[in-house]
Structures are given as structure tokens and as C-alpha cells.
Amino acid sequence: MQDNVDVVVIGAGVIGCAVALELAREGRQVLVIDRHAGPGLGSTSASSAIVRYHYDHLDEAVLAWEAGRRWMDWPRYLGTVDPQGMAEFVRCGALVLDGALMDREAPLAHLRTLGIAVEELTAEEVASRFPAIDPSRLGPPTRTDDEQFWAEPTGTIGAFWTPDAGYVSDPQLAAANLAHAAASVGVEFRFATEVRGVGRDDGRVCSLSIATSDGRTTEIHPRTVVNAAGPWSSALNRMAEVLDDFNTSTRPLMQEVISLPAPQGFGIDDGGTSVTDPDFATYFRAHGAHTLLVGGMEPPCDPLVHLDSPDDAVEQVSAETWELQSLRLARRMPSATIPSQPRGIVGVYDVTEDWIPIYDRTSLDGWFVAIGTSGHGFKQAPFVGELIAALVQAVEAGHDHDADPIEVPASWTGNTVRMAHFSRRRHVVPQYGMG
Ligand SMILES: Cc1cc2nc3c(=O)[nH]c(=O)nc-3n(C[C@H](O)[C@H](O)[C@H](O)COP(=O)(O)OP(=O)(O)OC[C@H]3O[C@@H](n4cnc5c(N)ncnc54)[C@H](O)[C@@H]3O)c2cc1C
């Protein structure tokens, strides 16, 4: 069977669905292919879905802020209401403690440049506004078998606070909402279908070999392909043979996020917020009235668990991670109670060496990438769609994006994103973790 299509987006995660929506809004005929049975069932489903705007780099702060405004006004951005329900933006703010894993200077400067509300807090102010949090200096972070882990605090720490940050109530539903909006402007979805091969002809992508779950294989002939395959992206880039001029790899990195009962005074309607703790290497946020999600900031003492394939991730949170993260959290929140049974979720990041995503064209004409989201791409999705749509349009109109990277207006906030920042050929400064 032969099948000519205009654009194929590989991946119906939050990124692929947003890309498909915006390409269709530009008048393209879009087919989304995903090996899972529905939208948002890949790494998106495990996301902590925190929407924060503090970044070391201005372009990422611009992107997050622009996307954040769209999360805040989700039905207006989508232009549809999904009958299966709408994901909600929960404005709980973000508290960023001081700590060795993060320097507050650059993020603060960017927040101020962009006019995003931010307040600097002393340790006393942190303690009085968030009584469940102990603003003692506990770091640098160590493992529990290191006696330093239990050492007395060496002082106190301040913080900064952005009240307009928050989280999205259900990341998988958010992807489904995007898919619904995309379908309403003509996007076709094929689920339980996997891309297994990429054909090239004279420097341009010319075919995809796709297999359905019942074992049938078909070749389709897209003009344009966007690789939005999350942590599976590198396998597809290898099939397309496009990695020759990438300055960074993308690799699947396993992540475990534990969940605990929310301590008194830290439920979402009861003073709870989202916290980045670069002093003791966790991030945590209230999730609804009774739960706290706790993830890691990859301090140098924690080994990174890179996988050959995201499919190799373990299914359940390990006892070791449970103990480490719950005890780190308990030192920061002494009133937290730790149940005996580990609870949480295992997910996979698609990480680059500098933890900056790649939103770019490639050396293969017609093959674009929205990949390497490195554990913080969920929040960006509603604007990444527009970035990729603008990029595809410019490149296919003959613009040399490699020589003269495009800049995309961020229309809801009046800023501009310089796409050079997300280039596969950028100068890469390797970083161990996100912190
Ligand atoms: C534990 C965890 C916590 C996170 N917390 C946050 C957070 O708080 N804030 C934030 O902003 N970001 C966060 N992130 C990051 C964010 O969730 C991701 O950046 C984002 O969800 C990636 O979306 P995606 O669409 O690129 O990938 P995915 O959701 O993984 O989608 C890719 C899709 O591609 C499909 N696919 C892959 N290969 C093929 C193929 N060959 N053929 C067909 N289909 C294919 C897969 O089935 C999958 O559905 C977190 C991530 C994890 C794992």
C-alpha cells in the first residue's frame, strides 16, 4: 500500500500533539503516529507537570512564560472543549530555595526582565509563609549512608517565590486535550502503530515504514516529518541517519518520582506549593489536598541511570530511591510522615548533554526534531508547537535556518524566542543534572 501524506508527526505525547495542532492551524495536512494506544501515554504520563519560569537562560524563560500563559487560559489556547474533561492549571506558585545546585542570579534577572512577579524571601519569611518547610542549610546533598547526610545544619537559606507558577492537574489528559483540538482542525491519528524505518532519497526524507499491532507493515510517503518521539527520539534519528552534525546526544534517563502524604499545612488548598530545593537536591510539590510528589535534582552523588531504550525502565519505584528521597524530604519537612510501602511513578527523560531541548531542522531535508526535553519540556509544549510550525514553514520556504536561525514572536507575552538557543549545532556546555 502506498500512502502520500503531507506531514507526519512521530509521537502523540504532549509535544507531538501540540506540534500537530499548530501545523494544522497553518493549513498543513497532518498525520500523527504513535506506538501507544492513545495520546500522552509515553513519558508525558509520568510528568510532574510543574509549570515554572525560572531558568538559567533567557530563551527558555521566555518559552516557559509564553507557554505558561497558555496553560493558564487552556480552553482559549485550544479553541475547543474536550468532552472527556479538561486539564487544569493549578496556580500554586513556585518556591526556589537557595542551594549549591543552582545560582539564583541569572533566573532572577530573567524573571525581572520578563516582568514575571517574583519576591525574594529571607529564611525567616520562608518559615513563616511555609511553616512545614525548615529553611536550614542541609547541603551539599549526600547519600543516606554518608554521615554528612545527618549532620547538623550549617545555617539557614533564603529563597525566591514566583506566585504565577503552578502545575497541570493531569499531564496525560492535557495531551489528550491537545489531540482533541488537533483532530478538530483535521489532524489524523494512528495509534498502536510504530515507525520502524526511514527512507531517504537525495538528501530528503522520502518514506516511513510503519507497523501496526496486528503485524501489518506499510510504507507511507510524507513530505515532512517531525520527530517528537520523546525518549525514543534517538532511535528514530539513528534510523534517519541525521546525527552527523548534532553537537549533543539525546539519551533516555530513568527517573523515579515518589509520592507521600502531604504534611499538615501543605495540601494544595492549605498552603502547599511547588518547591525546588537545590540545597538538598529534591523538588516537590503538593498534588491535590493530600499528596506530595518528590523528584530528584540529580546532584553529583546520585548516579544517573541511562537506558538503552525507554522500554527498559523498571516498573516500580525502587526501595533505594524511596528511602533516599523520602529522607531528604523529611529533613526539609520534619513533619512529613513516611509510609512503609514505596509509592510513586517511574518515568524516562530524554536528556541532552546540556539539558536544553533541541527544536530544530536536521541535515536531512524534511526531517525536523522536537526532542531532548530533558525533564522540563512538559510546560513548554503549548508554545513548542508554534515554534516548530514556524520553523517548518520558514525552512520549506527556503530559509537557511542553520546560517540564520529564525526568531519566533511569543504573541501572548510580547516577547521573542531565538531558536538558535535550541539548535542541534549550538555550543554545548555539558551538565551533570538539571540542578
Ligand atoms: C518523571 C518525570 C517528571 C517530569 N516532570 C516535569 C515537570 O514537572 N515539568 C515539565 O515541564 N516537564 C517535566 N517532565 C518532562 C516532560 O514530561 C517531558 O519533557 C514531556 O512529557 C515529553 O513529551 P514528548 O511528547 O516529547 O514525549 P512522550 O510523551 O514520551 O511522547 C513520545 C511518544 O512517541 C511515541 N513513539 C516513540 N517512538 C515511536 C515510534 N518509533 N513510532 C511511533 N511512535 C513512537 C511514544 O509512544 C510516545 O507516546 C517530566 C518527565 C518525567 C519523565
From TrEMBL:
Domain (FAD dependent oxidoreductase) spans 6-391
| Recorded GO CC terms | cytoplasm
Gene3D superfamilies attached here? D-Amino Acid Oxidase, subunit A, domain 2, FAD/NAD(P)-binding domain
Please spell out the taxonomic lineage of the organism that makes this protein: unclassified sequences, metagenomes, ecological metagenomes
What's one Pfam family the UniProt record gives for this protein?
DAO
**Protein name (record):** Unannotated protein
The cross-references to PANTHER family, in alphabetical order and at most eight, read:
SARCOSINE DEHYDROGENASE-RELATED
